[in-house]
Amino acid sequence: MSFTNRLPLFLSRFPHLNALILGHLAAYGMGPFYAWPVIALCLSAFWINITRLATEKAWQSWANGFLFGFGFFVSSLWWIGNALLVGGNDFKWAYPLAVCGLPILFALYPMLACGLTRLIRKGRSLAAYSLFVALMFAAEWARG
Questions:
Q1: Of all helices (H) and strands (E), which one includes residue 59?
Q2: pLDDT digits over 45-78, tens only?
Q3: What is the tens place of the pLDDT at every residue in 73-90?
Q4: Buried (b) or exposed (e) across 13-28, using 16+ Cβ within 10 A?
């Protein structure tokens, strides 16, 4: 019995929802919580999530990367939108753009990392995990 057969049914049935939730949880590794081990755990669980899609269509790996990034950046950058809710501000209409627009753009970087991981090396191996970590690092570096 493989590891993925022992996962709870919820985790194996909804991989795209899992990516969004894992991205949200990974945001707790940043300030103001600074629970940095959470990022390592969430990225590892996310890697298991995207490698489970190795036999599916390629767009699902790209979509999973996007949803992980979107969940992470919405949860990390919500405070930017709060600055628009100050009394007397004429730009309250830009709140959805601040809360969702910027995370949509930033989510393209993890999407690219996951898609390239899928194209270069499918499946679960140490080399595939190392490639995933290196591409996620490169995506964060490029985003920065």
A1: helix 58-76
A2: 999 999 988 888 999 999 999 999 999 999 998 8
A3: 999 988 888 888 888 888
A4: eebeebbbbbbbbbbb
SS3 for 66?
A: helix
Please state, in angstroms and rounded to a whole number, the distance separating the CA atoms of residues 114 and 136: 8
Q: What is the pTM of this model?
A: 0.88
Please check whether residue 72 is in contact with residue 38, taking contact to mean a CB–CB distance below 8 angstroms: no
Contact in structure between 58 and 119 (CB atoms under 8 Å)? yes
Q: Which amino acid is at 138?
A: A
Peptide bond connecting 32 to the previous residue in cis, omega within 30 degrees of 0: yes
Length of the chain: 144
H or E element that contains 11: helix 9-13
**Residue of 13, 17, 30, 137 whose CA lies nearest to 75:** 30
